[in-house]
Design goal:
Oligomer: heterodimer
Mean pLDDT of chain A: 93
Radius of gyration of chain B: 13 Å
Helix content of chain B: under 10%
Shape of chain B: globular
Order of helices and strands of chain B: EEEEEEEEEEE
Largest interface: A-B, 22 and 25 residues
Strand content of chain B: over 45%
Low-confidence stretches of chain A: none
Helix content of chain A: under 10%
Number of helices of chain A: 0
Low-confidence stretches of chain B: none
Number of helices of chain B: 0
Distance between the termini of chain B: 29 Å
Order of helices and strands of chain A: EEEEEEEEEEE
Mean pLDDT of chain B: 94
Largest sheet of chain B: 7 strands, mixed
Radius of gyration of chain A: 13 Å
Structural class of chain A: mainly beta
Amino acid sequence: GIQVEQSPPDLILQEGANSTLRCNFSDSVNNLQWFHQNPWGQLINLFYIPSGTKQNGRLSATTVATERYSLLYISSSQTTDSGVYFCAVDSGTGANNLFFGTGTRLTVIP
Amino acid sequence: DAGITQSPRHKVTETGTPVTLRCHQTENHRYMYWYRQDPGHGLRLIHYSYGVKDTDKGEVSDGYSVSRSKTEDFLLTLESATSSQTSVYFCATRAAGGYGYTFGSGTRLTVV
């Protein structure tokens, strides 16, 4: 399967700070998604972004498919942003199974 | 998520016993998936289904089997539970032709 690497593995921010999370992947992808897992374990889809840039409030994401990476930007972070952020990709074959990175654990302190 | 229900939410079982986890969806999605989440590994695919009675293996399928007798239910069975299967199990669904995944709330399984 496709290899997915995320960095940094851990990140601690002061409330109000900005951050950039990175996702590198090893092959061409048909689908790239960013998820947020909250402290209660629920996985929420943030973006479907196989290429280009999208924004949703304080969050935005950019995927450069030709260079095989994606970035998730969090601006003016809030304590509710804490949790683990996962990048997941699929190659477009089979049942479009997602391959997940190991995540970035974000802690926002007040 | 109200569209996907996983049961049980928590379970403790003994080594060597069979265990079945259930995923029930009300979304009428074609595709269903079982993942396990372990520290340092993210989520890894166990098995998936692309229709009723149509299933296939994922990257960590050893020791697991699945069944899907109707669209809304996808069962994951640990044939003989081992301590290495202690994990959090997530079910997910996806509509045919769509890219959005919806995840259940997870089942925390402990094998002692």
